[in-house]
Write a structure and sequence with these properties.
- There is one protein chain.
- With about 300 residues, this protein is mainly alpha-helical.
- It has two domains: about 90 residues; about 160 residues, Intergrase catalytic core (hpI Integrase, Chain A, Orthogonal Bundle).
- It is about 45% helix and about 5% strand.
- It has a two-stranded antiparallel ribbon.
- Helix 1 runs antiparallel to helix 2, helix 2 crosses helix 5 and helix 7 runs antiparallel to helix 9.
- The protein is globular, with a radius of gyration of 26 Å.
- About 30% of the residues are buried.
């Protein structure tokens, strides 16, 4: 098993990885083999070639994208070394792109209200489940806003999980950890308009692009020309953090404050940030000087 393509196939088959991650590993390994002009593990997994591979991407490529390629290559390299196919890599010798901090943005309350209002005006086409789009999308948007759940967890949410006090316990697909969420009575009312326990299930299954496009169309029709469905989760956590500092990460089910910091719009609380005392007295407003055209007659 000296060919990287064969090794990656066996690596994926022996592990419980998602289809998306499997495709990413295959894509990265194919690009690495193409760059090395060889399918041999020894030719692909060496420090000089991998560093050249990571440096070969155009400048417009996001550093975070290049860093993900680095992670994929190292994961495969370590797995090959475990089988004594190649020597172990030394991570500190592998180029690590510097990633500037991201400015996290999210929907404002006004934008979210506008999107929800527009969802009630969708074209009344029935979906594959027989549910009208005007009924489905308001329930999905309100559920995502209240709970801050990821898209897949929104699709799998069941009305039978809702307790009398409006709370529900959800096992997150991504982490496998449980999180307790709460729903407003108006959101429960929207969910009850759909005669299924799994009311917000997306009928297209894994057809995510169609789901994202429909949401984008609703947002643009509402006059909101920015953001994606993911911004509802960001906004939910950010506004919970604004109301009660320290609660946003727990609301989203994050494992640590550091993880929450990558999804939190800190600008919401910038006005409340403490400041040192001023070094000069607050000056009074300067008097308004009227414009006199005669003063500029010489120009």
């Amino acid at each position: 098993m000296s060919q990287i393509s064969e090794f990656v196939e066996r690596y994926i088959a022996a592990r419980d990885v998602s289809d998306l991650y499997a495709k990413r590993l295959t894509w990265t390994s194919d690009r690495l083999a193409t760059f090395a002009q060889s399918d041999s593990l020894e030719d692909c997994f060496n420090e000089i070639l991998v560093n050249r591979f990571l440096s070969s991407w155009p400048s417009e490529t996001s550093p975070r994208t290049v860093r993900s390629y680095r992670s994929d290559v190292l994961a495969l390299w370590n797995a090959a070394a475990d089988l004594d196919l190649v020597p172990y890599p030394v991570p500190r010798r592998i180029k690590r792109p510097k990633c500037p901090a991201l400015v996290i943005d999210c929907f404002t309350v006004e934008e979210a209200k506008a999107i929800l209002a527009q969802s009630h005006k969708c074209k009344p086409y029935p979906m594959k489940t027989g549910v009208c789009r005007r009924v489905y999308w308001p329930a999905v948007i309100a559920l995502a806003w209240d709970t801050g759940l990821r898209r897949g967890d929104v699709w799998n949410f069941r009305k039978s999980w809702i307790r009398d006090d409006g709370s529900a316990r959800v096992i997150q697909q991504k982490t496998g950890q449980s999180v307790t969420v709460r729903l407003h009575p108006s959101t429960i009312e929207l969910l009850n308009r759909i005669p299924f326990d799994q009311a917000t299930r997306w009928p297209g299954g894994a057809n995510c692009p169609r789901f994202c496009k429909q949401f984008k169309d609703i947002a643009r029709s509402a006059g909101v020309f920015r953001g994606t469905f993911k911004w509802l989760r960001r906004a939910s956590g950010s506004y919970v953090e604004l109301v009660q500092p320290g609660a946003g990460g727990k609301h989203l089910g994050h494992s640590s404050p550091q993880v929450f910091g990558q999804h939190y719009d800190a600008r919401l609380t910038s006005a409340a940030a403490p400041m040192p005392p001023t070094l000069r007295e607050e000056s009074k407003a300067a008097p308004v000087v009227e414009f006199n055209p005669d003063e500029f007659a010489f120009l």
